[in-house]
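Appendix B. One record, verbatim.
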Amino acid sequence: MQLLQFTDSAFPVGTFSFSNGLETASFEGVVKDASSLEAFARSQSHQAAFSDGVAAILTHRAALLGDYENILKMDKYLMMFKMNTEARLMTTRMGKKLAELGSKLYDNEIISAWLADIRTGKTPGTYPVAQALIFVAASIDEKSLFCSHQYGVINMVLSAALRCVKVSHYDTQLILEKLSGEIEGMYEEASQMKAEDMNAFYPELDILASIHEKGNMRMFMN
């Protein structure tokens, strides 16, 4: 029930208020149908898995050990993978909101300390780190954390697509079913990676994000 709660679109941290720049991808003709949407969502999933996903796993392990300094390290390190302003805004806005919510749900010293450090500017407060701390507080394992994070990334794109791409609910659910089947394999790889192995090299996504940052094609918060 807790895993469903944290993954639900109604969970009030803004997960589904962003689109990862899908409006611009649609406007530029990069995403125009179900096939190109699947490719776009898969790229977003892979980019997230081996940057955000790895950071979440490593933070989860650090939290279990009570290693607060490593939690701060992962939070700052992850920001280096956010090449555009809106990606940084998205991850920190959602991260802070989740930390605030977590401090209400759990009497947890690490979450409280991390939220205090976010407010003073000592740490950026990224969303994957917040997720890891919440999942440890809820006694949910790292594989479920990774799965929940990837589901959020994929479904964020697919939910946005229903509003700005010529696809149906049937199309998006089929894509979700396909990409969900790839998550376990990505977890097996991500779970063996160290911080220095993290990577996010999908240059077309970053180019689209840079165009989107100064563009006017917006339906969502970012």
